[in-house]
Amino acid sequence: MTDILPSCPECGSAYTYQVDALLTCPECGHEWQPAADSDQALEVRDSVGNVLRDGDTVTVIKDLKVKGSSSVVKVGTKVRGIRLVDGDHDIDCKISGIGQMGLKSQFVKKVAD
């Protein structure tokens, strides 16, 4: 069963398609986030139950091995500007000294603003 995607708000084209979290129109190139499912938005919680949002700062609560490398993300490492995604590793982030990676929310704690 396929979901019916909304028409493009710019040109009205019915040929929209989804790329990650964005909807894209192949005719005019317009990209937008679907607003219809915002009530069912992804709710991600950290290791102590705090709700995480895009752009939050978190700290790592456990030493984490980086897959395919001998590097380790040490406990206490601050990660700024996280982005929430769907999947097993529900946080996308950039860690200085390591680079872009995915983290599981169960291994982080939100830093108070």
Main attributes?
13 strands; 32% strand; 113 residues; three-stranded antiparallel sheet; mainly beta
What does this structure look like?
0% of the residues lie in helices and 32% in strands. The protein is built from no helices and 13 strands. It has strands at residues 17-19, 22-24, 31-32, 44-45, 51-52, 58-60, 64-65, 72-73, 78-79, 83-84, 91-95, 99-103, 108-110. A hairpin with a 5-residue loop joins strand 4 and strand 5 (51-52). The termini are far apart. Mean pLDDT is 86; it is low at 36-40.
How would you sum up this structure in a few lines?
The chain has strands spanning 17-19, 22-24, 31-32, 44-45, 51-52, 58-60, 64-65, 72-73, 78-79, 83-84, 91-95, 99-103, 108-110. The chain is mostly beta strands.
- Secondary-structure element series: EEEEEEEEEEEEE
Instruction: Name the overall outline.
Output: elongated
Note the main sheet: 3 strands, antiparallel
* Total of helices: 0
Strand order of the largest sheet: 1-2-3
The total count of strands amounts to 13
